[in-house]
Amino acid sequence: METPQKTIIQNGTPLKNSPVFNYINNLSPIKPVRSIPIAQTFGSLSPSVYTPPHKGSRSKSHTYFSDPSKELVEEALLETIPPEILKNDCISTPPRRAAANDGSCGDGETDLQRMCDGNVKRKSDTPDWETQFPETPEMLIYDTLNDSEADRCFLPASSDSKRRSCGGTKPRLEPVSNSKELADALHRGVRRRLLDFEMPDKQTLEKYSSSCVVPPPSTGLHLNAAFAMSSKDTNKYSLSGNIKVGLQNSTTPVLHSHDFAGENETGEAAGQSVVEEVQKSSLALVEMNQSSPKKKRLKSEQAGEGESACKRCHCRKSKCLKLYCECFAAGVYCLESCSCVDCYNKPIHEDTVLATRKQIESRNPIAFAPKVIRNTDSSIMEAGVDASKTPASVRHKRGCNCRKSNCVKKYCECYQSGVGCSINCRCEGCKNAFGRKDVSSFVGMDIKQDDVSETWKTQQNNDLVRYVPLPPSTPMVLRQPLAQLPISSNNMLLPQQSQHLHGASGSSLYESQSFRKQGTSLLSHSRTEKIIEDIENLIQSPITNINAVSPNSKRVSLPHLDSPELTPRRRNGERKLLLSIPTFPSFTPHH
DNA sequence: GAGTTTGAAACT
DNA sequence: CAGTTTCAAACTC
Question: Residue A411's pLDDT is what?
Answer without folding.
Answer: 92
